[in-house]
Amino acid sequence: MKQTLLAILSLFAVSSFAQVTLLNGHHVLELSGGVSTYYNNRSLKPGETDRSKDRFKLRDAQIELEGRVGADFEYDFKVDFADMAAQNSTGEIDPENPGLMEATVTYKGFHFVDIEMGYGKLYYSRSALVPFDFSPYWQRPELTRGSIFSTRDVGITLMKNFWKQRANVYIGAYTGLGELSLSGDNDASGQLEYVGRVDVSYPARYRYREIDDRHSPIPMFSLGLNGRYANKKLPEGEVFPDQATGEYGLKVTDGKRYVYGLDASFQYMGLSAQFEIHQIKQEPQSPNDPLFQNLTAEQTKGYVLSGGYIAQLNYFIKPIDLIVSARYEELDLNDLVPGNSQRFSPAIAYQINGYNAMIKAQYFHINKEETIDPLKWDEQYRIGMVFQFK
Amino acid sequence: MRHFKNYMVAGIFLASCGLSAQKAVRLKPIRSVAIAIAEPSDICFNAKSGTFFIVSDSGILFETDHDGKTLRQVSQKDADFEAVYSDEKNVYAVDETHRNIYIYDIDTFKVNRMVTIPYGGGKNKGYEALTYNKSKNGFAIITEKDPVYLFELDNDFKTLNRIDLSKIATDISAAAYHDNFLWLLSDEDMMLLKLNPNTYEVVGKWSLPVINPEGFAFDQDGNLLITCDDMQRIYYFNNPEKT
Question: Which residues of chain A lie closer than 8 angstroms to B228, CB-CB?
Fold first, then answer.
């Protein structure tokens, strides 16, 4: 058994997964990318017959170009061809896999503050900011994967770090339509969304990672505060672009929308844990907005609350290159509707060559669901392989 | 599916049992000091001056005393210094991003020469370590990871040989030739390695209880100094071979 396994693994365990860099003394261009494929199997509820999700799926087919021109300019361009092919055939954008993943330029010439412009990750939510390449999971938590609030947008971000990079501040203005901003136009309100984040770590800089793969010899902590605001009151008779409100109708509001959240992370000797909580307060301008669930203004008080939290525990078994992780998530899509949903998802990832080549397996279990978001399944298994030249 | 997962975990466990590594001795720092150098990435000791040279990610070369107090400094625009080595005449600072070695006159702190050693690997996985291997009468420059390559260079920085050291550590962040051995530091493994300088066989290893160790040097008494990038500190250890 042992010899058979080693023989199989040796087929994958080539020594070099390095990306390629081109440089001319002033301009440095780095090329990287990756491919990942998984097999998915769902356990359907009684009476359900659609087994179309039992399939292999090409999750990623990415190319990334990262560069630096002189000392002042950096750029990042990342595209996923698997997502684009999927969008061409379905016409839908998966917010976690939007096709164009990053197209940003950062200017560092001011020194007191860096400025990033373009389309890319919003600095809101630690969970959303952790690069997916470093995750043992096949899917991010529902709360932070882009279906409740957007995780990418077009706009401008000012960023600054302090205290030996232990404290980071990000503020920015964006179109506010999230991944749909790439269609070009804003919605009819013409208003922007404003996003800010502050995080502080101790006793050292804490990167946006979930796994303590270095087995930190001293305990490390990080705490982040996030906020975002948009007032997108649509003119009479106007509606948001198709898909703009997202799967749950929460990503933009015809009115005022506040989102605020807290995230915390800890790691020590291979053990790491994350906790994150977010709340959305929406104040639709119309008393007949579907978010109000046909309730009266006296009952709703003019606003709707949504949100949830995630708790995740991980351990990296360094001697055998194995990550084990478990995640619990609770969501309340609308406080005017009784009940919430609860999900549990453990994952395991075996590193053939660090994060560059991994076999990952994830189990999804729906403990409880909301009446406004009924699902056809209650369990799901996903196993596959990630390969990256990074 | 459940059975497959069980087999996979069991197989990985069995495979790991055959990979028993040489046991590393755990070192304990005797003290540490905070230094006013942002992101210190490497340090070397100069026996002639009795001082240390430290380089930083922002392209600054510092000369310091034993406590990390800055005596001199010089800045290089558009450089990410990740390795430093000095001899009686020069200080050599390695710019990881552009694959350059800046050769500073040790007295004037002016750049005498700049040498480029092409390498097509990752932008941030380029040269992280430089030292002079007296056993081979040439320089040794080492890439950080994916893969870890040691390039043997002659005294005019011409590449003579390439050795793949990927199996000895996840990454390499610094190197020094000391006491007739080649010593390497791994940041991600938090490990100090002692190698035969001719065969590159690992003959000793010590684990380090510090976050992000990026550089190391031995002082005139053979005691060990480790610079930590994230903590912006120098940690002091007794001679590891006498611990």
Answer: 204
- Give the residues of chain B that fall short of pLDDT 50: 1-5, 8-21
pTM value is 0.89
- In B, which residues are within 8 Å of A356 by CB distance? 146
Of A6, A23, A32, the CB nearest to B98: A23
Chain B residue with minimal CA distance to A202? B231
Smallest Cα–Cα separation from A307: which of A248, A375, A246, A244? A248
Q: Is B123 in Cβ contact with A28 (below 8 Å)? A: yes
Q: Supply the pLDDT for residue B16.
A: 44
Residues of B in contact with A269 (CB under 8 A): none
The ranges assigned to domains in chain A are 26-389
Residues A155-214 pLDDT 10s = 999 999 999 899 999 999 999 999 999 888 999 999 999 999 999 999 999 999 999 999
User: Which CATH entry fits the domain spanning A26-389: 3.20.20.105, 2.130.10.10, 2.40.160.10, 1.20.1300.10?
Assistant: 2.40.160.10
In sequence order, the 6+-apart residues with CB closer than 8 A to the CB of B117 are B99, B100, B101, B127, B141, B151, B153, B157, B159
How far is CA A281 from each of CA A176, A252, A258, A259, A278, rounded to the nearest angstrom? 16, 11, 5, 6, 10
Contact A32 B122 (CB under 8 A): yes
Is B115 an interface residue toward A (CB < 8 Å)? no
Domains, chain B, in order of start with CATH, read 29-242 (2.120.10.30)
